[in-house]
Amino acid sequence: MDKGFPVNLTRNTNADDGGDRKITSEVDFFSERNKPSPSASHNNIKKEIISTDVKPSTSNIHVNTGLQLANTASDQSVVDDGVSSDAKTTELAHLQVELQRMNSENIKLKEMLSHVTGNYTALQMQLMSLMQKNHHTENEVVNAKAEEKIHGVDGGIVPRQFLEIGTNGTAEVDDRVSNSSSDERTRSNTPQNSLIEAGARDHIRNNNGKNGREDSPDSESQGWGPNKVQKILNSSNVAEQSATEATMRKARVSVRARSEASMISDGCQWRKYGQKMAKGNPCPRAYYRCTMAVGCPVRKQVQRCAEDKTILVTTYEGTHNHPLPPAAMAMASTTSAAASMLLSGSMSSADGIMTPNLLARAILPCSTSMATLSASAPFPTVTLDLTQNSNPIPNPNPLQQFQRPHHAPFQVPGFFQGQPQNFQQAAASLYNQSKFSGLQLSQEVGSSHLTTTQAPTHQQQQQQQPSLADSVSAATAAITSDPNFTAVLAAAISSIIGGGHANNNSNNNNNSRSAVSNFSGN
DNA sequence: CGGTTTTGACCTGCGC
DNA sequence: GCGCAGGTCAAAACCG
């Protein structure tokens, strides 16, 4: 019996070995993609070139090189049958000239690429500095307010510990942020630990480490309590910045997907550590912790939607501190990217309220409604809704669009690198697919008046698309319930959001074996 | 036997 | 201060 792993994976793939086969073929495809073109004529010309001591360029930039040479080669193979060696030599010379021309062209293209890259970097730097400047300005406003309180301008009482945290707590918070990987389990292993420590954590909040525990890794908060951050936000700019970083860990990414399984497969291994009945929902909420590495801070909550029990809402929090298999990277990078986007938006505002329009456009630039953003207390949350059936781009054959042929499977972002054309095609394709699947982006910003679009309920969203054929609904539901699709779609979204965010687990090696084992294990 | 799930108890924050 | 809700812990049960 599969415990904690999606049942519908095996259901969707008919058998466990079917699931393995699917993933294996995908991995094989990726490995194939890294090989040169299998064209026989291409191989022929390669041999010819090497035999004449002309080194072919291996640059990826020159996409057409192989084709042109291949054509030439096939021409030559015809000539080979009965033509003199002079013609052969002439042909070789011609090829050499052609190759040299292409090499020089390659160099030019490389220069262009480096130029564009440089421009991009410069622009990115400018953007960063602008954002930083903006943030700094807001900090000054906060500081001014804090100063007023310190000097009793408004008669307010300044909580002493907040000021102390501002100078002293920086290291503590930063340390927590940078050491998000600190071993929570180790910390919790001692018997009495949790209760004592819970109290100690609270004590730290109030006394700022006067009990001497602030330097201990034990002082690392669980990353789920909002209050510490909220309090620190009211102190100095340093503390605010630190708190913002701490908030980064608290950003949540919620994924709604139709699934009859108890949990969607995201490639990670999870251990259930709790279950609670949440108010207003007859379905219990399950709490999971990542067990792929000891002390991984990532947790997730899984709960069925109260309105539609076929919808599984999975809420992720935290960043993995260990290498992930590609299958896990897809979802992990997505949640990380979404969290980064969300918090980069929230960071630009002193009161923690994000700029929803900017964020919304950033997540999916061509859409006005694709994912739900919420900065309502206590946690900023991005919701990726993979349950909808809306289709802004009419597609007469949605099934065809969603099919996963073996010759062109979906890719996770890590595999896009070095394959720009494939990346663009896949991203564009998945972008359309994501639009098809009805990722809804609205701006629900808690109590703030920045709300521009009221997040529609699930029923409302369905009612907005009454004209869709049942087959489309069924296909979408079936596909979006496929955990692999969910993960890969999420990966594509993260890719669209921006490569910088998408692969924060850059040290993750693409261990295809672990991916296979994970999926088969799931 | 080791890992996972279950489940009741406990803690914390928040609103009243 | 009290009650509520969300979140976590850990012993016991369960499973392969």
UniProtKB/TrEMBL annotation:
Main location: nucleus
WRKY domain segment(s): 259-325
UniProt feature, compositional bias: Low complexity: 451-465
Record key words, sorted: Coiled coil, DNA-binding, Nucleus, Transcription, Transcription regulation
Subcellular localization: Nucleus
InterPro entries: WRKY_dom, WRKY_dom_sf, WRKY_plant
Region annotated Disordered, chain positions: 1-22, 169-228, 386-405, 447-467, 502-522
Stretches assigned to coiled coil: 85-147
UniProt feature, compositional bias: Basic and acidic residues: 173-187, 199-216
Name by which UniProt lists this protein: WRKY domain-containing protein
